[in-house]
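Help!! Second protein's tokens look totally different from the first
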Amino acid sequence: MAQGTTKLFNLSERREMKLKTLKDLYRDELRDVYDAENQIVKALPKMVKAVSSPELEKALQEHLDKTKGHRKRLDHVFKSMGETPKRKTCEGLKGLLEEGKELK
């Protein structure tokens, strides 16, 4: 391994990644989280429409509102780094949402 390079094993993608700095790792993880928040923002409105419990509907709507806030904060983090927000597929959440579709 080249000097100054950290090798990490990304379990969600089952591949090795070469990251040269902690900032590279930080950026990579932010992109993963940014994608997760966007997946949630897309999925929650469908869940809100599908539930019959008013309490659950309210809880899901509150969660959606908070998640939109998380996404907005991530936009600010990327901006503070001088970067445009980019997504890296969060395979873990993608899998959870796929499993959730089977519950219909």
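Here's the second one for comparison:
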Amino acid sequence: MNTQILAGFRRLRDRMLCGDLPHCERAGSPGRSRGHRCICCDKTIQAGDLQYDVRLSNERIVPAHQHCYLAWREESLLLKDVAVTGGLR
């Protein structure tokens, strides 16, 4: 895995751990963007591009780029597993 991808995962994890980014507790729904900003990277998702809409625990729905969503979801599940098991398996 290249260093840019690893750095992106690390940024997401750090943001979740410090509370700047909520955990992605539910699966997202794919759809077409209307030009909103990605919750993960804060960059605009170009209108018509694929995005994932994620419903947060407070019922707010937020958009994410497909690649951002996949990384966010993976890191969220990993952090949940670490919290439950006390460490990586």
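Reply: Different proteins will give different token patterns, so don't panic. The mean pLDDT is 90.
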